[in-house]
Amino acid sequence: MDIYNLLLAVPAILIALTFHEFAHGYVAYRFGDPTAKNHGRLTLNPLAHLDPMGTIMIFLIHFGWAKPVPVDPRYLGNPKRDMMWIAAAGPLMNMALALISGILIRIFIGVGLASNQAGETAQIAFQMLYYSLYINLALAFFNLLPIPPLDGSKILAGVLPHRYTPTLYLIESKGPMVLFGIIMFGWITGFHVLGVVIGPFISVFSHLFSGI
C-alpha cells in the first residue's frame, strides 16, 4: 500500500481500533466491571486506545494493535460466561461497522457516486468506505482466531468445559509467540498464513454487505 492509500485508510484504522476497544470496555462495564472506566477507556477518543508501538507498526509493516482494555474478572458475576461476551464485543462491533460501511457503499453505487465521473471528493469518500469495510472485516475475523491473546481464544474458553482450563492456560502462555511468529513469517516471505485463513471470510462478507 502506497502512502496515499495508507493515508486514506488511517481514519478507518483509527475508528475500527477505537470502537473495538470501546466495545470491550462498555460490555465489561455493563457486566459490573468498572476497570476500563476507571482507566479512562470508556471513550471514543482514539488517543486513549492507541498503543505507540502498535501505531508505528501499522505504518512499517501494515499490521498494528491498540492497547488492550483492562478487565478484572473479580467484578464479574459469571466470569467464564461474561469474559466470553466481553471478548466477542470487539469483533461484533467491527462487524457492525463493516455492515454500515457496506450499506453506504451500496448507496454510493446506487446513486452513481462510485463512478469515475462522480468527482474526486466522491471517489475519495468511496475509497475510504471500502477501506472501512475491509479493515473492519479483517479486524473482526483476525480477532476471532482462537490464538491467545486474540479475542477468539477467550470466546473459546467461554464455551469449552472447565476440564480444558489447564490446556487453555498452557496454550495461552505460548500463544503470543506463535502469533508473532506467524505474522513475521508472512512479512518476511510474503506468504501470509493468516490471510489465507481469514481471506475467504472477508470476501464472503464483503460481498454480502456491499455487493462488491
Task: Please explain how this structure is put together.
The longest helix is centred in the middle third of the chain and has 32 residues. By secondary structure, the chain is mainly α. Helix 1 packs across helix 5, helix 4 packs across helix 6 and helix 5 crosses helix 8. It has one domain. The mean pLDDT is 90.
H/E topology pattern: HHHHHHHH
Unreliable sequence segments: none
Domains, number:
1
How many β-strand runs?
Answer: 0
- SS-based class: mainly alpha
Quick description:
The chain is mainly alpha-helical and 212 residues long. 71% of the residues lie in helices and 0% in strands.
Which helices and strands, and how do they pair?
Elements: H1 3-30, H2 35-38, H3 52-61, H4 79-110, H5 120-143, H6 151-159, H7 165-189, H8 193-210
List keywords for this structure.
single chain, 212 residues, mainly alpha
